[in-house]
Amino acid sequence: MNEIALLEWVRGTGFQIATVVLVAGVIIRIFEILMLGRKKNLAEAKGSEFSSGMRTIVSRSVPESDSFKRSAFTIVAGYIFHIGLFVTIFLFAPHILLISELTGLGWPALPTPIVDAVAVLSIIALLAILVHRFNNKILRYLTTPGDLFIWFVTIAPLITGYIAFHRIGMSGPMLLAVHILSVELLMVVLPFSKLTHVFTIFMARWYNGAISGYRGVQS
Amino acid sequence: MASHSDKEKTLGDVLRSHGVSRRSFMKYCATTASMMAMSPAMIPMIAEALENAKKPSVIWLSFQECTGCTESLTRAGASTVENLIFDSISLDYHHTLQAASGHRAEEAKEEAMHENHGKYLLVVDGSIPMDNPGYSTIAGISNYDMLMEAAEGAAAIIAVGTCATYGGLPKASPNPTGAVSVSDLIKDKPIINVPGCPPIPVVITGVLTHFLTFGALPELDDLGRPKAFYGQSIHDRCYRRPFYDKGLFAETFDDEGAKAGWCLYKLGCRGPTTYNACATTKWNNGTSFPIESGHPCLGCSEPEFWDGGGFYKALSIPTADVGETVLYTAAGAAAAGVALGALNRATKGSANKAHEKVTLEDLEK
Q1: Fewer Cβ in 10 A, N or C end of chain A?
Q2: Contact between chains at B337 and A27 (C-beta distance less than 8 A)
Q3: What's the Enzyme Commission number for this chain (chain B) (predicted)?
């Protein structure tokens, strides 16, 4: 298979397979979670589930001062690469073209040099997080090969995207093919790993808040 | 067609008789040396080799093609030294250019093949149909038979144009004639691929010059293309590249961005994945190249370029029809999710039913 044939495969069949797995995986998992159901709560409701849930979505996205003091590095680096992933995925012009072709929705892109800088920051943050993980005894003890795999799957599209944009190390078709392939790997792994939080995080936060709201306690 | 007496002349003699000055000849040698990334010290060597080269016999076979490649190489315009060098080979057989026709033409080919066995250059444009030989025949001979017979005695084969190099338009899905490229069929001869739809004229003359100078083919990439011409992508040499780097894109063919010369990525430009010399050599005697005229690169010198999605869709857009796939997948997955959820609830329900309560008495037993 030559490089162009590989590129055509990842843009065609490969992307189709990855999309089917992603969409099917995420929908099945969300339906399963929603249908789990809870035992009927016989206690009288002492507050609103909905508003407490919504409040918690916001409050749990902002670090508490105590926990920030304890693990400032994890929180800052975590924010950097999460925001970085958002910016590189959703505010880079070629990616917006893809999204608008698939969904009909489009929005203005950030200037490419800004996206480029954000990508570099995100890569540095993810590398620092890995180093931190190995330098910290407890984190190292808790780390499984699965965690490293998820780290790899997350950083790979950033690195391949960076070298594809700057055209480092491989031919044009190969760079693009490798980048798209790394994204397809992420798409396939996402529904079946802790990366599912992309779709479940706000649902989970709302639910946590709703439980507290029902009980009339602060979440 | 070249006469027999012409064949005794050297290339230098022929060029001089065409009124090519020493200055323009040396300029051509210098351009060729720089285009092919050779050291300036090679220029006299190229000049000497070309000066003394005997006109090599070239047999040109055209199969499933549109004659665009020949048009490109022989197109009208200011008479260039490249054209004259092209004129100065002994082109013993070429459907479009030869005066002879019918049996006489075929005889000329047979004669050239016989006389120069093992030494002639075989140039091929067009793909070869493998489904039914009747799809394309010349003098009742199938393209496949003609190619194999001519290839047998060739010193080297130059596949000119995307059809001969990768199958091109005839091979585009669904490939009704079962078209294949020259290198799909011939494995035991040196083949040089000069793709493009059509290829740049100076690329073919550059390859010929290299062959005349060194008696060997130039260095090739993994797709069999001369690295000197196909070593860099259009994108890397594009004068609009700074706009790509800044993220300034033309949105339509006539918006302000297009007028200001912004990058054509969003309009489907294949520059980033296409390797060719258009951005440096340019077309029409160095006038411009497609991107300079405001049109995105189509990627015509790459394999499968007809099937690489719409020409006007950006490279980042998948070629697969994902929209419909997603709808069906989502519907199927929702049904599967509900079914799995119901199954989980049933399991939970039956576990609850089967649950036996442990009493204090049980524990005290």
Answers
A1: N
A2: yes
A3: 1.12.99.6
The whole-number pLDDT of residue B1 equals 42
Residues of B in contact with A173 (CB under 8 A): 273, 302
Distance (Å, rounded) from C-alpha A60 to C-alpha B246? 37
ipTM for the whole complex: 0.86
Which chain A positions have a beta carbon within 8 Å of B272's beta carbon?
A: 167, 172, 176
**Cβ atoms B307, A11 nearer than 8 A:** no
Cβ separation B325–A97 shorter than 8 A: no
B4-229 and B232-345 have identical folds: no
Could you read off the pLDDT of B337-354 as tens digits, one per residue? 989 888 988 888 898 888
Looking at the DSSP assignment, which residues form a beta bridge with residue B62? B125
Phi, psi of B283 (to 5 degrees): -115, 170
A27 vs chain B: nearest CA distance in angstroms?
6
The residue with tokens 């100065």 is B88
Q: What is the Cα–Cα distance from B308 to B300, expressed in whole angstroms?
A: 11
What chain A holds in terms of domains, given with CATH numbers, is 3-36+67-215 (1.20.950)
Contact, B163 vs B125, CB < 8 A?
yes
Q: Which residues in chain B touch residue A94, judged by CB atoms under 8 angstroms apart?
A: 265, 314-316
For residue B9, give the nearest of B54, B40, B64 by alpha carbon: B54
Pair type for strands B120-125 and B191-194:
unpaired
Instruction: Quote the CATH superfamily of domain B232-345.
Output: Cytochrome-c3 hydrogenase, C-terminal domain (4.10.480.10)
Structure confidence at residue B214 (pLDDT): 78
Cα–Cα distance measured from residue A140 to residue B261, given in angstroms and rounded to the nearest whole number: 53
**What distance in Å separates residue A85's CA from the closest CA in chain B?**
17
Q: Return the closest-CA partner of residue B50 out of B192, B160, B215, B194.
A: B215
Under 8 Å between Cβ of A12 and B320: yes
pLDDT for B260-312, tens place per residue?
999 999 999 999 999 999 998 888 878 899 999 999 999 999 998 898 888 99
Say if residues A158 and A199 touch (Cβ distance below 8 Å). no
**pTM of this structure:** 0.85
> Which residue out of A4, A38, A170 would a mutagenesis test of the B interface target, given it has the greatest number of B Cβ atoms within 10 Å?
A4
Name the architecture of domain B4-229: 3-Layer(aba) Sandwich (3.40)
Whether the Cβ atoms of residue B245 and residue B198 lie closer than 8 Å to each other: no
Q: How far apart are CA A155 and CA A124, in angstroms?
A: 10
Q: Which residue has the tokens 């949105």?
A: B251
DSSP H helical segments within B75-214, as ranges?
A: 81-88, 102-115, 143-152, 161-166, 168-171, 182-185, 201-214
Domain ranges of chain B: 4-229, 232-345
Q: Is B337 within 8 Å of A29 when comparing Cβ atoms?
A: yes
How do B141-142 and B137-138 pair as beta strands? antiparallel
Contact B247 A97 (CB under 8 A): no
Note whether A187 and A18 are within 8 A (CB): yes
Which residues of B line the annotated binding site?
66, 69, 163, 197, 235, 238, 263, 269, 278, 297, 300
Angle (CA) B78-B164-B278 rounded to 5° is 45
Per residue in A41-51, pLDDT (tens digit) is: 888 889 899 99
Average model confidence (pLDDT) across chain B: 86
